[in-house]
Amino acid sequence: MDLPPGCMVSEKQCQKVCKLKKSLYGLKQSPRAWFGRFTKSMRAFGYRQSNSDHTLFLKKQHGKITALIVYVDDMVVTGNDPEERKALQNYLSREFEMKDLGPLKYFLGIEVSRSKDGLKLCIEPNQVSTDKGRYQRLVGRLMYLAHTRLDLAYALSVVSQYMHNPGEQHMNAVMRILRYLKNAPGKGILFAKNVNHQSIEVYTDVDWAGAVDDRRSTSGYFTFVGGNLMTWKSKKQNVVARSSVEAEFRGMTLGFCEALWLRLLLQDLGYLSRQPIRLFCDNKAACDIAHNPVQHDRTKHVEVDRFFIKEKLDDKIVELPKIRSEDQLADILTNAVSSQVFSKFLDKLGMCDIYAPT
């Protein structure tokens, strides 16, 4: 680096370099240094870093809990101990230059509104860009928008596959998504008030060999905690499945691993769940083979996933209730459905208009 203006050195020191004692803003090691400094301060104040999410810091005392989650330099503090929250804010104000923005209204572009029913999360769609690379930027913005718009998950999983070589039909598909957004710009997720924070449910579904280009299957899952939707994913599988059972096992394992992570996160928050995770899969053959290790002829090539599910079934960590295909919510994450089915499932998933009168 160049010497700062006004710094005078002798001729003997002209060939020397500067050693930084502090990380400067803009250098690639700055984020790591900042987070290390922040973590050290939080631990010094008695907070514990979560093992499930390293950006989450927790403090439990006198039967109450306070949580802080950080993204770069944006923080959200919550909990049922008002005195500890105030003490934490005062401590952070002394340690760092920070501003208290009051009750949470916006975080990373996500709008938060409160009502008598609970919390509603929504992201406002940005205006359309017309510069070079339009398709990539549009899909990138839509993917960020999908953090609160689960109704876009399957469509975006399809159009995002053509980021490097988009055609006219792919741009038309993106425009159709935008027209859909224009008709419902304020849709978001409702987190209803619920005291049962220990129940975890997963809906998994697979569209076997549905991709015309390479005949790979598409997996999708929804996870619920206490009846409220937490996470979801629609993703094409990495390999071609030779049978629908093989594809279903991979989809079940994907959703179940997400539920296990949620269980560990709840444990960090002080909610030790003793209820088994309810995994809903509408493929009867996959459920039967998971319960019965004798029927393995069709699943020799997915034995790892099969034994993983079977082990958790034996340990009473998971159960596989029966569900009809017409009630499988994850169906909208793996293939296109009729508008009536789509609207019905969105209502069940807790999607609502954030601007609708209550």
Features of the shown structure:
alpha+beta, Alpha-Beta Plaits, Nucleotidyltransferase, domain 5, 3 domains, five-stranded antiparallel beta sheet, 9 helices, Retrovirus-related Pol polyprotein from transposon RE1, DNA/RNA_pol_sf, RVT_2
Describe the structure.
The protein has 358 residues and is α+β, with helices and mostly antiparallel strands. The protein has 3 domains: 42-101, no CATH class; 103-193, Alpha-Beta Plaits (2-Layer Sandwich); 196-353, Nucleotidyltransferase, domain 5 (2-Layer Sandwich), CATH 3.30.420.10. 34% of the residues lie in helices and 22% in strands. It is built from 9 helices and 14 strands. The protein has helices at 30-44, 82-95, 134-145, 153-159, 168-183, 244-268, 284-291, 303-314, 339-349, and strands at residues 48-49, 56-61, 64-71, 74-79, 106-107, 110-115, 118-123, 187-192, 200-207, 218-225, 228-236, 277-281, 318-319, 351-353. Strands 5-6-7-8-14 form a 5-stranded antiparallel β-sheet. A 5-stranded mixed β-sheet has the order 11-10-9-12-13. A hairpin with a 2-residue loop joins strand 6 (110-115) and strand 7 (118-123).
What is the distance, rounded to the nearest whole angstrom, between the alpha carbons of the first and last residues?
Answer: 59 Å
The 3D shape can be described as globular
For the record, what CATH class of the largest domain applies? Alpha Beta
Q: What is the count of structural domains?
A: 3
Beta fraction: 15-25%
Return residue spans where pLDDT drops below 50 for at least 5 consecutive residues: none
**What strand line-up does the widest sheet have?**
5-6-7-8-14
**Average of per-residue pLDDT values:** 87
Number of strands: 14
Count of discrete alpha- or pi-helical segments spanning 4 or more residues: 9
Judging by the overall fold, what is the CATH architecture of the largest domain?
A: 2-Layer Sandwich
Estimate the helix proportion, in percent.
25-40%
Find the CATH topology of the largest domain. Answer: Nucleotidyltransferase, domain 5
The CATH superfamily of the largest domain turns out to be Ribonuclease H-like superfamily/Ribonuclease H
Class based on secondary structure composition and strand pairing: alpha+beta
| Radius of gyration, CA atoms, in whole angstroms | 24 Å
Q: What is the chain-wise order of helices and strands? A: HEEEEHEEEHHHEEEEHEHHEHE
